[in-house]
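Q&A log
Question type: sequence-to-structure
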Amino acid sequence: MKKIAAIVSFLVLMTGAGLPDPSGAQTPEPAAVAQLDDIVVQARRSGAPMWTVTQGDSTLILVGAITGIPRDLAWRPDDLEAAAARSNQILSPQVGQASVTDLLRVIWRARTIGLMPQGQTTADYLTPDYQARLEAIMAGDRNQDWRTRSLLFVGFDLMQDKAGYNRGRSGDDAMDVIRRAARRARVPVRPVGTVRGDELVDSLITAPQTAHVACVEAAIAAAEQGPDAARTRAEDWRALRVAEVVASPIARALNQCWPWGDPEIAPQLRQQWAAAIETAMISPGVTMGVAPIRLLAEAGGVLDGLVARGFDVVGPAWKEGQSPEEREKP
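Response status: OK
Response body:
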């Protein structure tokens, strides 16, 4: 039931997260963005992975964000705040348009979402190898209810309880910092798109257990790294070791698990980011976009796509074997 409550909270959060502040967010006057070079320099040394792309009078600053940063892990947000405050607009991740009916459907179908079909266990879906690895991870647990829990929840539990992702209270992430800075500077923040709440709920209710096998397999690999897996990922992020962040077991699991692992929702999320970036590249001034780092830096992702189109992407290396000098400029 705790996980159902968590999903309800997630849908509630998505309903309002990232929306512009109607009380007074305004587009800065042209003079506020005159010192474009200063903004770009501030962004590069922010303590968060940042990339800049310029075309004519349009500049796009992409922030590679992660969630689940341990509360006691310090990072440097000052220059990121300054760059956000001097941007013309900021793009935030998608929001969900969940209604009360959508939330009630989740609660009403709690058993369908949270448990295996009657008489089935994880062993009916995982290969003998993965089942044995799962057994080893869960060997110390007295409660054996995990065997009949839905694979969706098994994946969530492994990441949180065994790999340390979002365990306890998390610290500020890049979006938290940027949102506060934008509010103070009255810079508009808008989501790159929306996802209908009924689609999110349908994906939870109707997806067969087989749809979550890849999630559990990836979560098993993350759990095998132990409770410091999430901290290691966050430390790599802070140190701008982008390839290591994207290759981390936690990142791989998040990419396979709901909602990013959903075959219908994930393409929507990616297409909305692609359209927003396309628009930003023809919009005068500075646009800052805060996106999941794996979306930006994965093989064939946003950064690779920009390079393939001939844009000069300036920022930290994001691929193995790519030296910093190839991407950074004075």
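Response note: Strands lie at 50-55, 58-65, 89-92, 95-97, 189-191, 194-196, 285-292.
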